[in-house]
Amino acid sequence: AGIVVVVAAGNDGRDNLYGNDGYGTIMAPGNDPYVITVGAMRSMGTPDRSDDLIASYSSKGPTQIDHIAKPDLVAPGNQVVSVLAPDVTLAKEYPANAVQNSYYQAGQKGTSKNVFTLSGTSMATPVVSAAVADLLQAKSSLTPDQVKVLLMESAYKTFPISSNAVDPASG
Hints:
Elements: E1 6-8, E2 36-42, E3 53-54, E4 73-76, E5 80-83, H1 89-93, E6 98-100, E7 111-118, H2 121-138, H3 144-154
Parallel strand pairs: 1-2, 2-4
Antiparallel strand pairs: 2-3, 5-7, 6-7
């Protein structure tokens, strides 16, 4: 249908249930070869990309059945500050994630009811979706495959070769 589909890789990268150090943890829909699957990275709080890391919780391939290398891209997804809808359960369950008003307004005190901090591949996925929107705005004739190739070809590729952080609770 010509729609570019961007999905989160999942947050099971620390799952060592099967003794695989979290590899093979990308499930549907991220395991589909036609979608753009997005993992999360940690920016380490600096403008320099050379110290960025793949987030340990970010699910990683290869996919279990057809062994496709995934995720296709990673984007900042760790400790992302974003807007928050009013009166949502998330804010009640995780009050420590509320952002101090002084974070974005000098001299302000207290915590915001409109801004929240979250981590995960679902926080990284909108970054890639925005890049897709920019590409399609610049050249609307691009196919979904062309968009995926352009993003993957132009992506920064200097990250650690492997990851072995595991969740102690899962093995």
